[in-house]
Amino acid sequence: MLGVLSAADERAGAPDGAVQQFMAYGQLCHLIVAVGLTDLTDVGGSKPRWAKVLTEGTAHPETTQADPGPDPDPDPDPEPTA
User: Fold this and answer.
1) What is the pLDDT of residue 80?
2) Which of 18, 55, 58, 77 has its CB 3.0 to 4.6 Å from that of 14, i.e. a possible disulfide?
3) Using alpha carbons only, what angle is made at residue 26 by residues 50 and 72, rounded to the nearest 5 degrees?
4) CA 41, 42, 46, 47 torsion-angle sign
C-alpha cells in the first residue's frame, strides 16, 4: 500500500487530503467489483439502498469475462499444415 500511496502523492503533487480521497475511492471501487455490488439484489429483486448509495455514479468494466490479453507466447514459426 505504501508504494501506491507514494506514487499517488509524488505524481499528483496533491495535498494529503486529496491523496486520502483518491485512495479511499480506489478502495471503494475495488470493494464494489470484488463483492459484486453492481449486480446485488434483495429478495424483491431490487438493489438494497445501502448498495445503491455505494455504487451510484460508478461504472466498472464487465467482470464476468476476463480479457486474457495478447498471447504471452505466440509461436513465431508455426508448423505448416498440409
Assistant:
1) 65
2) 18
3) 120
4) negative
**Which residue's C-alpha cell is 509524488?**
10
Terminal alpha carbon distance of the chain: 54
- For the segment 34-66, what is each residue's pLDDT rounded down to a tens digit? 888 888 888 888 888 888 888 888 876 664 545
Do 26 and 58 meet the contact criterion of CB atoms below 8 Å apart? no
Cβ pair 1, 19 in contact under 8 A: no
Dig out the grid coordinates for 68 from the structure. Answer: 486474457
Place of cell 464487465: 62
Q: Where are the domains of the chain?
A: 26-56
Q: What is the pLDDT of residue 74?
A: 60
